[in-house]
Amino acid sequence: VLDLFNVSQYKILETTNPYLEKEVGADIFLKEKIGYFGALHPDILKKYDFKDGVFIVELDLESIFSLERGPYAIKPLPKFPKVIRDIAIFVPSSVTYAEIVEVIKKVGGGILEEISIFDKYVAPEFPPGVSSIALRITYRDPQKTLTDPEVNKKHDEISKALEEKLKVQVRRTK
């Protein structure tokens, strides 16, 4: 939603909301907290007899609408195809999503187009305070078609940087 309003200076941090499951929720900040999103806490689900998980979002739209935003830039459709790679990592609770994104953006450089989280999982067999996060990373070069070796090299650089800088463990397939 913030991207649609051309708002880029936001941070997503671990939630402090007691109604959200700590491992599956986040608070959204501009200069101050403007909202939150996440899965309702299991105690709340039980209290109201919800059979399935419930995901909620709250945003202070007045804060968003009152921001000065830059002009919208209309870009032509890309001439070259995107390449998508997924990465799954074991993350200690001390590492924030914002820190992960920062490392990926720094290493990804000019061919990094988008980062999105598509799964977060906490299992009893994981060490305490560790969750598994899966990210989808989209690469595209505006000047040429990327080759698999080029993308694989950049993806490996991102994996190594995450392990070295944030001490996360990249899940690799056997």
Helices and strands in order:
Elements: E1 11-14, E2 20-29, E3 33-40, H1 42-47, E4 55-59, H2 61-65, E5 83-92, H3 97-108, E6 112-121, E7 130-139, H4 148-166, E8 169-171
Antiparallel strand pairs: 1-2, 2-3, 3-4, 5-7, 5-8, 6-7
Helix pairs in contact: 3-4
Task: Explain what the structure shows.
It is a single chain. The protein has 174 residues and is α+β, with helices and mostly antiparallel strands. 24% of the residues lie in helices and 34% in strands. It is built from four helices and eight strands; from the N terminus they run βββαβαβαββαβ. The strands form two sheets. The chain has a four-stranded antiparallel β-sheet with strand order 1-2-3-4. A four-stranded antiparallel β-sheet has the order 6-7-5-8, with helices on one face. Strand 6 and strand 7 form a beta hairpin. The longest helix is centred in the C-terminal third of the chain and has 19 residues. The protein starts with 10 loop residues before the first strand and ends with a strand.
